[in-house]
From TrEMBL:
<feature type="domain" description="LysM">
    <location>
        <begin position="420"/>
        <end position="464"/>
    </location>
</feature>
<dbReference type="InterPro" id="IPR036779">
    <property type="entry name" value="LysM_dom_sf"/>
</dbReference>
<dbReference type="InterPro" id="IPR000189">
    <property type="entry name" value="Transglyc_AS"/>
</dbReference>
<dbReference type="GO" id="GO:0008933">
    <property type="term" value="F:peptidoglycan lytic transglycosylase activity"/>
</dbReference>
<comment type="similarity">
    <text>Belongs to the transglycosylase Slt family.</text>
</comment>
<dbReference type="InterPro" id="IPR008258">
    <property type="entry name" value="Transglycosylase_SLT_dom_1"/>
</dbReference>
<feature type="signal peptide">
    <location>
        <begin position="1"/>
        <end position="22"/>
    </location>
</feature>
<protein>
    <submittedName>
        <fullName>Lytic transglycosylase</fullName>
    </submittedName>
</protein>
<dbReference type="Pfam" id="PF01464">
    <property type="entry name" value="SLT"/>
</dbReference>
<keyword id="KW-0732">Signal</keyword>
<dbReference type="Pfam" id="PF01476">
    <property type="entry name" value="LysM"/>
</dbReference>
<dbReference type="InterPro" id="IPR018392">
    <property type="entry name" value="LysM"/>
</dbReference>
<dbReference type="InterPro" id="IPR023346">
    <property type="entry name" value="Lysozyme-like_dom_sf"/>
</dbReference>
<dbReference type="GO" id="GO:0016020">
    <property type="term" value="C:membrane"/>
</dbReference>
<dbReference type="GO" id="GO:0000270">
    <property type="term" value="P:peptidoglycan metabolic process"/>
</dbReference>
<feature type="domain" description="LysM">
    <location>
        <begin position="362"/>
        <end position="405"/>
    </location>
</feature>
Amino acid sequence: MIKKILFASICACLGYISSASAQQTLKLDSLPKVHNNIFINTDTVAVPVVSENPLTMGQNFIYKLRLDSIAKTVPLPYNEYVQQYIDIYAKRKDMFGKMIGLSSYYFPIFDKALKDYNIPQEIKYLTIVESQMNPHAISRVGATGIWQFMFGTGKAYGLKMDNFVDERKDPIQASYAAAAYFRDAFEELGDWLLAIAAYNCGKGNVNRAIEKANSRDFWVIRQFLPKETRNYVPAFIAAVYVMNYSNKHQITAQASNMFLKTDTVQTTRFVSLSTLAKVLNIEEGAMMALNPSYKKKIVNGTDDEPKRIVMPKLKDADYAGIYDVLNDQEVDVSMKVIEASTDDARDLRKKKAKSISTSSIVYHKVTAGQNLTTVADKYGVEVQDLRVWNGLKSKTLVPGQKLKIYAKNRTPLKAPASFLSYKVKTGDTLSEIAEKFDGATVQSIRRDNRLSKAGLQVGMVLKISKG
């Protein structure tokens, strides 16, 4: 009798993983579609730093049981570091509600790529820590996409970056590249937690930590790893826990704006995604969400290199219209493909440091009311350059502060532009407005009106530069 009572108590604490799995696989087709952009900021945030906090025995027991109950190949040990990240993530109910919603679309893509490379399925949860499953996420050093590939690493694993496409933003291509990386990292390091750490800081840093600690146990070598990597693995384990036990923390799935049922076609032609969206009678943003890697909203397929287009599966689709768009031979765009150069901020800083001559330095004394943008505009330089040249960690300037400006990087300032006004009407898009005015472009309208997104509001008055 005592054994039965004890077993029932453990089950109550555990909450049965099956109920959590049901939460995870909630079918969102029945939920209302929302078209608001859930990606508030495309810049990724480093893993939050946590402090050491004592835990009660009750917490230890419950969370350890739950982690042990999750089917896994990757070890999911429980300790105070993991608990602190569980505490952080469990409070982010809105964020994890969105993650559960997005997982209905993205997890099947991740699962297939990981399975094809015989990589544990739990690795897919890293995308929450890396990018919150945002294909447009960019880190402060240039890591890009859902899997946050640096330029060099992405290129090494077969991802293409040119003037048309950045495959680091392609969920399918980037998932296969990530799977290949984990295959190589596990073969070299022989431990999944070490492979996960290597994904964050590189295999070289992990091998050096192994040598210093004379151990291959992540928790032993942890002290010798970069600070962010020490927290990266506990954050991953906590993300696995919260996604599987969201119902124990009052986290509910939110419907995503992704079409869950899709068709995929290969094209050997140049295809306008904007035109295709009109024929499908869906928002352009929804079409781009399915095909986030195409920079110009143009799919540049050729006979030698066919390109993939993902389309929503619609009951009343205009198949004749779709056929015409896919076979249109008059897409107005230069077909020349130019390979992209690195966007690794660390490499770019090194190049700038080598090319800058100290004799070209001028100094600017900050006056009241000035900020980095006004100073950069005055000298015709970039804000990011000002920050690098002066080692600025904050955007705030203090009157009297002296700033270094490298004169050889200055560009002649243009005469003040004159503007026309345009009041936004229902159905207007930036591209359509730009077409109404000679010399106007989507980029110039966004710049002149300081628009952070392409979204417009009816009644908004825009400044349009004359020529």
